[in-house]
Amino acid sequence: MSASSAFAPLILKRSRILPSFQCIRLRLNVCRKCFYRTNGGNFKFENRTFRSLKSRETLKIFPCRMLAGSVRTFSSEDQGDKAKVVEKESEKKKQLKSDDLLRILSLAKPEYKSLAGAIGLLFISSAVTMSVPFCMGKIIDIIYSTSQDTRQMVETLSYVCKILCGVFVLGGAANFGRVYLIQVSGQKVIKRLREKLFRAILRQETAFFDRTRTGELINRLSADTILVGKAVTDNVSDGLRAVAQSVAGVSMMFYVSPKLASIVLGIVPPVAIAVIMYGRYLRNITKRTQDSLAESTQVAEERISNIRTVRAFGQEMKEIESGGMMMTSAQISVGDLTSFLLYAGFVGISFGEVPAGSITAVVGPSGSGKSTLGSLLLRLYDPGKGQVIVGGHDVRTLSPDWLRGAVGTVHQEPILFSCSIADNIAYGANTGQQVTNDDILDAAVQANAYGFIKSFPNGFDTVVGERGQMLSGGQRQRIAIARAILKNPSILLLDEATSALDAESEHLVQEALERLMKGRTVITIAHRLSTIKNADNIVVLSDGQISEAGSYMELMAEPDGLFRKLVEKQTIAL
To answer: 11 - beta bridge partners?
Structure first.
């Protein structure tokens, strides 16, 4: 879907499509992915359901992340309704908080027997803990008592110590039992919560996955469920223990000395206020921490799943030390760089000479080794036998960062990251390369991407979604080309960059590729043979071996040649 069709205003008037609306005009400036109809006949936009509207009321909605920064506005003749809606939403939020708390606590309902036992053991262990000060006081009184002789005092102390040992053993056993039951119950609650959350995720509509990143969902299933499980079990247990010990402690303080207890408890109110304020501060920090953890999980998941793209652009250190000082070591001279433009080959599979600025196409049936060749050239893999020689050097002796920095890649399915368009283009920069906004703009213009980028409300700051799913195939391809242009590589490796595009997008992408290929040595892995007629040299692979090599006309002149057979098969299929 192109940018113009994806974000064109959609006007819906009274019709069979809108049975629950009466005489209204609904204007939607929205990506159609975010628009869908619910079972009840109502319409939902990013989990907001609209059931009825006043007559002659216009509703403008900008729910899509592609239109971030736009404002949702209601225009109605009755402005008082808007205030009522806001008030109702505020009350609804309060109700949701209490309902959510009850729902969270309901997760522990199946474990009520274990939790009840844990609470009983909690009171026993708390009672033992709170008895220690009382017993210590009695022991001190016995020691300093003048009414008993030494022998009687020793016997009394021995008796008290034996009782204390028994009490401590009982308290330790009770505390062990409490912790065991709480931990077992907590793990069961976490398991139950994860199952429900996973089922809920699988039942979401497609638009939900368009705007929610995978790493965030993974974090919700892992770290967040652990927090909720602990809140239901550990936190409740610790809270009850603190309350029990506080009540027992205050009671014993008044029992021992009411006057002293009154003086000491005078500091409780200010301390309580400080604790409440700190608790709110800690809650905000915890929320930000979880959000940051979700973000880091998303980045890690995205980079690991797209490790080929990360390595192809030599961005390992950038991902490890984002924004830090990165050091590189050049392990090849300028002369070797010139040689790199002239040679690219395998030991035992020689392409011969590849002149600078020429285009070499690699073709062959499925499984012949076309994509493997590109992976070996980038040293994503090392050959099991033989060597890959570049400029007279085995690539295993060269710096991977330098090697991948000298090779630019554009794949059939380009990988974009869930960040802004500008960040995705700048991702192509080599380590240590300074990138300015003008560089990004120039790359976008050359890649025929500037036209659709400027149509977005946020322009280059538009977030493209996970794997660039908020963009069309042609738009993703042009962003990938802009990334390669910014990299300014010596060698360009193309993996049929136009095979999955419509005619209009293919024309724009092909035009951008022609600009990118000027003055560079190009190795293109071709699946559609009609796109390589202008290649200077064509290499035909079969079972990992070179079957034929030559120009398009030379290979087509061979009546029994493999290349001609492949072309004829594709022509018949078309």
So the answer is: 27
Residues 6+ apart with CB under 8 A from 319: 299, 303, 310
Does residue 265 carry a pLDDT above 50? yes
Amino acid identity, position 279: G
- E strands, 64-178, where? 73-75
What residues are paired with 361 via a beta bridge? 524, 538
Output DSSP code: residue 430: P
Q: How far apart are CA 87 and CA 373, in angstroms?
A: 64
124-128, 453-457, 491-495, 542-546: which range is least confident on average? 542-546
* φ, ψ for residue 567, nearest 5 deg: -65, -45
Q: Residue 275's CB: how many other CB atoms inside 10 A? A: 12
Q: What is the DSSP secondary structure assignment for residue 254, as one 8-state letter? A: H
What is the rounded distance in angstroms from the CA atom of residue 449 to the CA atom of residue 485?
12
Overall pTM > 0.90: no
Choose among 360, 318, 293, 347: nearest CA to 537: 360
Q: Mean per-residue pLDDT for 198-227? A: 74
> pLDDT by residue (tens digit) across 380-434?
777 766 677 766 677 777 777 777 777 777 777 777 877 888 888 887 776 667 7
State mean pLDDT over 329-336: 42
Q: Which of 84-88, 499-503, 556-560 has the lowest mean pLDDT?
A: 84-88
Q: Whose CA is closest to 444, among 420, 429, 460, 432?
A: 460
Give 573: exposed, middle or buried? Use CB within 10 Å, 0-12, 13-18, 19+: exposed
Give residue 488's region: left, alpha or beta (phi > 0; psi -120 to 50). left
How many whole angstroms separate alpha carbon 339 and alpha carbon 393? 10
Find out whether 312 and 380 touch, Cβ atoms under 8 Å: yes
- φ/ψ (deg, to 5) at 377: -65, -35
Helix or strand holding residue 80 (H, E): helix 80-106
Residue 59 bridge partners (DSSP): 26, 74
Scanning the structure block, which residue is given the tokens 């300093």? 144
**Could you give the CA distance from residue 341 to residue 406 in angstroms, rounded to a whole number?**
10
Residue 242 has pLDDT above 60, yes or no: yes
Per-position b or e across 447-485, b if 16+ CB within 10 A of its CB: bbbbebbeebebebebbbbbbbbbbbbbbbbbbbbbbbb
Mean of the per-residue pLDDT values of the chain = 67
Q: Which domains are delineated in the chain? A: 101-256 (1.20.1560.10), 351-573 (3.40.50.300)
- H helix and E strand count, the chain: 22, 16
